[in-house]
Amino acid sequence: MEPQKKHCFYFLLTLTILPIYASTALGGKRGGGGVLVGGWQPIKNITEPHVKEIGEYAVEEYNKESKSQLKFVSVEKGETQVVAGTNYRLILATKNGALAKNYQAVVWEKVWEHFRNLTSFTPVKA
Ligand SMILES: *[C@@H]1O[C@H](CO)[C@@H](O)[C@H](O)[C@H]1NC(C)=O
Ligand SMILES: *[C@@H]1O[C@H](CO)[C@@H](O)[C@H](O)[C@H]1NC(C)=O
């Protein structure tokens, strides 16, 4: 290759590889512990107060955004993912009057910034 073209080739290569590398790095490969990048890990103890708090936050936030009256009942199941903070993906039991319904909520939390956001809230089969 001529030097000029070679340079261009490497430039393109960098453009292609950098975003992949960046998204991988953000995906949770921290401390070099060999954790699966971007993987969801089951929450070992879903009865922990903090997990319940995330679940309650999700229902509250959903009620605000959709003017609903769902009542949080419990966290049925949950997973977390490390992404510049932590994503919680929880299966929540809720009640709307007598109607019981399960939802899958994703909450993004950055504890040190006191930041939380409800990313999604979708019905699932009970
Ligand atoms: C789960 O968390 C609850 C509340 O913190 C605690 O009482 C319980 O002992 C924990 N269970 C296990 C198996 O760690
Ligand atoms: C929070 O999530 C909603 C979508 O559920 C999004 O519209 C909003 O921009 C997010 N807020 C922040 C601060 O990331």
Query: Approximately what portion of the residues adopt beta-strand conformation?
Result: 35-45%
Radius of gyration: 20 Å
Secondary structure: helix percent: 25-40%
Largest beta sheet, briefly?
5 strands, antiparallel
Organism: Quercus lobata (Valley oak)
Protein name: Cystatin domain-containing protein
Signal peptide: 1-27
GO molecular function, one term: cysteine-type endopeptidase inhibitor activity
Task: Provide a short characterization of the protein structure.
Residues 1-27 form the signal peptide. This protein is α+β, with helices and mostly antiparallel strands and 126 residues long.
Describe this structure in words.
This protein is an alpha+beta fold and 126 residues long. It folds into two domains: 1-34; 40-123, Nuclear Transport Factor 2, Chain: A (Roll), CATH 3.10.450. It is 33% helix and 37% strand. The protein has two helices and five strands; from the N terminus they run H-E-H-E-E-E-E. Strands 1-2-3-4-5 form a five-stranded antiparallel β-sheet. Strand 4 and strand 5 (115-124) form a beta hairpin. The longest helix has 24 residues, at 3-26. It starts with a helix and ends with a strand. The site of one 2-acetamido-2-deoxy-beta-D-glucopyranose has 4 residues, from loops.
